[in-house]
Amino acid sequence: MQRAGRVWLVVVALVGLVASACADGGPSELERTAASIAFAASSSTTPASTTVTTRAVTSTSGQPATTATTLARVTTPTAAPAGLGAGARGADVALLEKKLEALHYDVGAVDDVYDQNTAYGVVAFQKVTGMARTGRATDDVIAALASATPPPALVSNGNADRVEIDIPRQVLFLYKANALQKILTISSGNNQRFCSDGFCRKAVTPGGSYGIYRQGRGWEYGSLGGLYNPAYFNGGIAIHGSRSVPASPASHGCIRIPMAAAEWFPGQVYVGMAVDVVGVPGQPPTPGASPATTAPPTTAAPIITPPTATTTPGLLSGLFPPAP
After folding, report:
1. Rounded to whole angstroms, how far apart are CA atoms 205 and 249?
2. Cβ contacts of residue 161 below 8 Å, gap of 6+?
3. Where exactly does CATH 2.40.440.10 map onto the chain?
4. What architecture is the 91-313 domain classified under in CATH?
5. How far does CA 120 lie from the centroid of its chain?
6. What does the pLDDT read at residue 67?
7. 3-class SS at 133?
C-alpha cells in the first residue's frame, strides 16, 4: 500500500509539471501533438478542418493557473454528388433540356434552369432506358442521351390517338395521329392493401384497353384525396395531376402525372380517346402490345437535391453534333 501511494505521488507530480509547462507559455507535448494532427489534416488530399480550443483553468491552491487543451473532432466534408441536379443553371442545362425535348420527354420550359420539371424529364428517360431513377444528369445519362432515339410504340395496332401506360417502367406515352408527342413519368397503383368507404382492397392499376369517359376540371376530391384535372378511363381510375409523383408505384390505382404536365394534358386528350395499360403482372397482355419490359432499380433519394458540380466538361456539347 505504501508503494502504491508513492507511485500516485509521482504521477501527481508529473501531471503538475505538465500543467506548469502549459501555463508558462512553452509548447507542451499535448500542444505539439495537436499541431501535428492539424498539419496532417490540412496536408491531406481531402479537405478537413481541425479546431484546437484552449481554456483557462483557475487554480485554488495558489499554484500558477493551468490551461486545458481540447482537440475537436476532425471532420471531412461530404463530396458533392456528380452530374447536374435540381438548382443547377447554365448552358449545359439548356442543352440537356433541348435534347430531352427532341426525344419527346416533357421538361416544361426549355431554359437554363434545372427545376423539378427537368428532373421529371430525366427520370422518365432513366425509366425508359433502364437506368437508376435518380433524376440527376450524370455522365452515363448524358452519354446515353447522345445516342438515344424515341422509344417504339407499346401497342403496334393501337388507335391513332391513344395514351399508352407502361406499368413496369412507370411512364406514359401520348400519341396523336400515330406520332409520339410526349413521354411522362408516372406513379401507378402500389399493390398495397388499403381501406376506404367501408371496404378494403388492393391498390392496383388494371391492365387492358380502355377509353376516356369523363374529364374533370381543377381539383376533384374524394375519400382518398384530391385529383387535379382528372381524365377517367376505368371506373374511378384516372390520369391526374399530383403534387407527389415518386419514381415508383405509390398511388391507390390512379395514374399520377406531374402537376405541370396536368396543365396541358387535358387539352391533348378527349372523351373516347384510347388508353392502353400494358405490362401489369399476372394479367394477360393487351392485344398488339409489345412484351413487357423489366423495371429498373429505384433509389430512395428525393429528386430535388442541392446545386452540384457539372458533368464532365464538354460532354454535353456532343448531344447535338454539327451537321455534315
Report:
1. 10
2. 175, 176, 177, 270, 273, 274
3. 91-313
4. Beta Barrel (2.40)
5. 10
6. 55
7. strand
Better-predicted residue by pLDDT, 125 or 309: 125
Nearest residue to 155 (alpha-carbon basis) of 297, 277, 46: 277
Q: What is the dihedral of CA 150, 156, 157, 158, to 10 degrees?
A: -50
Side chain identity at residue 262, one-letter code: A
CA distance 76 to 54: 22
pLDDT tens readout for residues 74-98: 555 566 678 898 899 999 999 999 9
Q: What backbone phi and psi angles, to 5 degrees, belong to 115? A: -105, -170
Pairing assessment for the beta strands 179-185 and 274-278 based on DSSP bridges? unpaired
Q: Which grid cell sits at 40?
A: 496532417
- In whole angstroms, give the CA distance from residue 215 to residue 286: 24
Axis crossing angle, helix 2-23 with helix 29-43, rounded to the nearest 10: 60
Q: How many residues does the chain have?
A: 324
* 19 in Cβ contact with 31 (< 8 Å): no
pTM: 0.69
Residues 32-85 have pLDDT tens digits of: 434 443 444 444 444 444 444 555 555 555 555 555 555 556 555 566 678 898
Q: Are 248 and 187 in contact (CB under 8 A)?
A: yes
Query: What's the sign of the alpha-carbon dihedral 258, 260, 263, 265?
Result: negative
**Cell, residue 88:** 443547377
